């Protein structure tokens, strides 16, 4: 009865928030439902017969979840997943309620994929009893919200102790993620075996051995602190890989590799650039293999997956111009994203939009850890915008950019118009926004009819 | 002969939590733009270095694990660092670096992690994290800088610093230790909106990152001046630079601090 009341209250809240058009309405119904029935998530989650997969980590959650959902659907599952990025507990409650019948007795899917914010992991794990947990990576992110990377790892670790029966699927190339095995031994590892050389200069997090504190030796380092590492002092190193990628190849727009799973190897090709997207594909492939999906289905599906909302979205304009929307959230992600712009030698048109709202992280000092220097010789026209546009302009100055190519226009609408006006036909505008700037820009684009409206 | 300064960057791996690299980038670029040669020496645990060769020292903030890793090494270097600071070496210590240049850091469990006592100050772990944009009035220090050197732009009397703080430690100054500034917006050393940072000779401790120096170029220039003056004696001014982009970012940060929320959790 309580469950029914919770669902009723949530649906009412949703209806009201849609009528009054307050906010996107994605979290409010869940918040209301949890107030009425605190166990609502557990009750609904238990109705998913094929189990629940949790995806957590700093970067790549949304894209990994999306890829995995695609693969499982292709394998005949009916999948529900919280694609909208509203991944706090109230968001997950809202999401489950949308996927249940009026009485809360049946779900309209058999497998659930939830991307979960690191800080929420213990709460969510306790509520949903996952079948598998994937940890993508741990980078410094929005420190003002979560404290520090080591603390984030221990929060995830605590969550892993709460689900001893779940399969824990860890990124072996991230020393901090790999060390989570100390919380739950039921693990498998994924990682990359390739001689890929990054342009970025160094890792900013987790360069030290988790066991003894000595500086790790990477050979090679793929990006950030991800790579094949050993500790020169205590001899510990990257765990043996159960899932891997080899033979990597990239362009500015797509990536190829060979995927090795427990059932052999297969070529994969994804329409997304950058090594971090191959990591997402690898993580999704590892979970799919664990759930018994065949390699052919994994490969065929990955080839057709487009980026998660705003992450790496290509938009064709009528006058043969293209927009490429690439979300940036944290220094390592930023460095990786701009590194993809160097995969061909063409000068690039770029719009960078830096906001410092809560969803972006209110502390923008991370832009000084992003290696903006990498792209300075690829700059054609650059527009900087957003609440902290001046800070980004300053960052580019100290990164050695030719400042006559850089224009500051704080207003996002005007910045987009300016960038589009100066964009030569048949060229691409690379848009690098932080999260709230991305939402705002997408709204502007929808208003101009460039993209479909975004409704949750 | 071109002038040259050597910057010692203390523990760039373990203590680099909040964009601290931006401070180094700023010092390097502002020297290079003036034809001053710069060398950055990254000082890691166990590295054999001679602090007599250092013209400027920088240390940033770290995670708790980073601070634990470096404490013993820092304490062993304490006397050499203090000797250099006593005879005028400029130093910038941000957040965790600031705390470890005090007498000690007392954890919530009551353990005292020793510092190197450059500042007559100590830090106790607080039960709240103080997070947000900060604006600090440094007029009392800036006027001393003007008396000391003929800094470019000093006639415009830049008397504020902007940055971002994120700390739970509360740093209490003892005796006649001078604060770096007084909080206009933000929490400051003790979380009460009172004083911020500490100054001893040419060593500056502060909780401001953001990064600090890019948006406060007059402070960056003061550190460079101190370094040049100590090494070359009769240097009394620096080539002026076009700081319009820096000043725009400084002013935007002040504006933003009026509307952005601070967090105390």
Bulk shape of chain A: globular
The poorly predicted ranges of chain B are none
Give helix % range of chain B. Answer: 25-40%
Q: Major β-sheet of chain B, in short?
A: 7 strands, mixed
Map the helices and strands.
The complex is a heterodimer of chains A (456) and B (265).
Chain A: H1 2-20, H2 28-36, H3 40-45, E1 52-56, H4 61-74, E2 79-81, H5 89-98, E3 111-115, H6 121-128, E4 132-135, H7 143-146, H8 149-161, E5 167-171, H9 175-178, E6 187-192, E7 217-223, E8 226-230, E9 243-250, E10 255-261, E11 264-270, H10 275-290, H11 295-302, E12 312-316, E13 322-326, H12 331-340, E14 348-353, E15 379-385, H13 389-398, E16 406-408, H14 412-421, E17 428-433, H15 435-447
Parallel strand pairs in A: 1-3, 1-4, 2-3, 4-5, 5-6, 6-9, 13-17, 14-15, 14-17, 15-16
Antiparallel strand pairs in A: 7-8, 9-10, 10-11, 12-13
Helix pairs in contact in A: 1-2, 2-5, 4-10, 4-11, 6-8, 10-11
Chain B: E1 4-10, H1 21-32, E2 37-43, E3 56-59, H2 64-86, E4 91-94, H3 96-100, E5 104-106, E6 112-114, E7 121-137, H4 139-148, E8 160-173, E9 181-185, E10 195-196, E11 198-200, E12 203-206, H5 212-215, H6 217-232, H7 244-259, E13 263-264
Parallel strand pairs in B: 1-2, 1-3, 3-4, 4-12, 5-7
Antiparallel strand pairs in B: 5-6, 7-8, 7-9, 7-13, 9-10, 11-12
In words, what does this structure look like?
The complex is a heterodimer of chains A (456) and B (265). The two termini of chain A are 27 Å apart. Chain A has 456 residues and is an alpha/beta fold. Chain A has 15 helices and 17 strands. Chain A has 2 domains: 2-302, Mur-like, catalytic domain (UDP-N-acetylmuramoyl-L-alanine:D-glutamate ligase), CATH 3.40.1190; 312-447, Alpha-Beta Complex (Protein-Tyrosine Phosphatase, Chain A), CATH 3.90.190. In chain A, the strands form 3 sheets. In chain A, strands 2-3-1-4-5-6-9-10-11 form a 9-stranded mixed β-sheet, sandwiched between helices. The radius of gyration of chain A is 22 Å and the shape is globular. Chain B has a single domain (4-264), classed as Rossmann fold, CATH 3.40.50.880. Chain B has 7 helices and 13 strands. Chain B has helices spanning 21-32, 64-86, 96-100, 139-148, 212-215, 217-232, 244-259, and strands at residues 4-10, 37-43, 56-59, 91-94, 104-106, 112-114, 121-137, 160-173, 181-185, 195-196, 198-200, 203-206, 263-264. In chain B, strands 5, 6, 7, 8, 9, 10 and 13 form a 7-stranded mixed β-sheet that branches. Chain B has a 6-stranded mixed β-sheet with strand order 2-1-3-4-12-11. The longest helix of chain B has 23 residues, at 64-86. The N and C termini of chain B lie far apart (53 Å). In chain B, 51% of the residues are buried. The chains are: A alpha/beta (456), B alpha/beta (265).
């Amino acid at each position: 009865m309580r469950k029914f009341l919770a669902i009723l209250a949530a649906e009412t809240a949703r209806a009201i928030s849609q009528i009054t058009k307050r906010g996107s309405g994605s979290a409010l119904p869940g918040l209301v439902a949890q107030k009425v029935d605190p166990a609502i998530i557990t009750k609904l989650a238990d109705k998913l017969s094929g189990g629940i997969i949790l995806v957590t980590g700093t970067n790549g959650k949304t894209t990994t979840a999306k890829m995995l959902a695609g693969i499982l659907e292709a394998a005949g599952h009916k999948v529900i997943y919280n694609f909208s990025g509203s991944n706090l507990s109230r968001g997950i409650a809202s999401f489950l309620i949308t996927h249940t019948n009026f009485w809360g007795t049946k779900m309209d899917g058999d497998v659930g994929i939830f991307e979960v914010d690191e800080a929420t992991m213990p709460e969510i794990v306790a509520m949903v009893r996952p079948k598998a947990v994937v940890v993508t990576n741990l980078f410094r992110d929005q420190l003002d919200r979560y404290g520090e990377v080591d603390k984030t790892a221990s929060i995830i670790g605590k969550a892993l102790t709460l689900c001893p029966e779940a399969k824990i699927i860890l990124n072996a190339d991230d020393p901090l993620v790999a060390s989570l095995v100390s919380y739950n031994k039921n693990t498998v590892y994924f990682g990359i075996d390739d001689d890929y050389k990054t342009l970025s200069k160094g890792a900013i997090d987790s360069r030290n051995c988790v066991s003894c504190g000595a500086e790790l030796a990477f050979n090679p380092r793929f990006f950030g602190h991800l790579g094949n590492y050993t500790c020169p002092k205590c001899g510990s190193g990257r765990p043996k890989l159960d899932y891997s990628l080899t033979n990597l190849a990239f362009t500015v727009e797509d990536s190829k590799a060979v995927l090795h799973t427990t059932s052999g190897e297969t070529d994969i090709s994804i329409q997304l650039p950058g090594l971090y997207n191959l990591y997402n594909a690898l993580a999704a492939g590892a979970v799919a293999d664990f759930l018994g999906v065949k390699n052919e289905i994994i490969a065929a599906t990955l080839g057709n997956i487009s980026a998660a909302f705003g992450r790496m979205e290509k938009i064709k304009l009528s006058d043969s111009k293209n927009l490429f929307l690439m979300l940036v959230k944290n220094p390592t992600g930023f460095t990786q994203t701009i590194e993809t712009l160097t995969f061909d030698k063409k000068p690039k048109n770029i719009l960078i939009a830096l906001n410092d709202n809560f969803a972006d992280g209110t502390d923008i000092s991370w832009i000084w850890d992003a290696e903006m220097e990498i792209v300075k010789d690829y700059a054609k026209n650059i527009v900087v915008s957003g609440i902290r546009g001046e800070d980004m302009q300053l960052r580019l100055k100290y990164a050695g950019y030719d400042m006559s190519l850089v224009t500051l226009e704080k207003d996002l609408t005007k910045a987009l118009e300016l960038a589009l006006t100066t964009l030569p036909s048949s060229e691409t505008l690379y848009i690098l926004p932080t999260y709230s700037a991305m939402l705002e820009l997408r709204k502007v684009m929808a208003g101009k009819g460039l993209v479909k409206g975004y409704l949750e | 002969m071109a002038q040259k300064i050597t910057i010692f960057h203390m523990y760039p791996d373990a203590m680099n939590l909040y964009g601290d690299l931006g401070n180094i980038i700023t010092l390097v670029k502002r020297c290079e733009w003036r034809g001053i040669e710069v060398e950055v020496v990254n000082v890691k645990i166990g590295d054999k270095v001679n602090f007599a060769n250092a013209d400027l020292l920088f240390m940033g903030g770290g995670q708790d694990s980073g601070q634990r890793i470096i404490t013993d090494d820092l304490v062993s270097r304490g006397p050499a660092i203090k000797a250099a600071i006593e005879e005028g070496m400029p130093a910038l210590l941000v957040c965790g670096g600031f705390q470890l240049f005090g007498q000690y850091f007392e954890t919530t469990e009551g353990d005292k992690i020793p510092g190197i006592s450059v500042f007559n100050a100590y830090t106790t772990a607080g039960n709240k994290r103080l997070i947000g944009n900060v604006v600090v009035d440094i007029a009392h220090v800036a006027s001393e800088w003007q008396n000391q050197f003929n800094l470019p732009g000093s006639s415009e009397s830049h008397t504020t610093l902007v940055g971002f703080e994120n700390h739970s430690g509360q740093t209490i100054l003892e005796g006649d230790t001078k604060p770096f500034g007084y909080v206009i917006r933000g929490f400051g050393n003790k979380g009460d909106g009172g004083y911020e940072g500490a100054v001893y000779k040419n060593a500056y401790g502060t909780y401001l990152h953001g990064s600090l120096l890019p948006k406060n170029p007059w402070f960056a220039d003061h550190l460079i001046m101190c370094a040049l003056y100590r090494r070359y004696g009769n240097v009394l001014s620096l080539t002026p630079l076009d700081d319009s982009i820096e000043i725009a970012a400084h002013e935007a940060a002040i504006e933003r601090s009026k509307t952005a929320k601070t967090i105390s959790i």
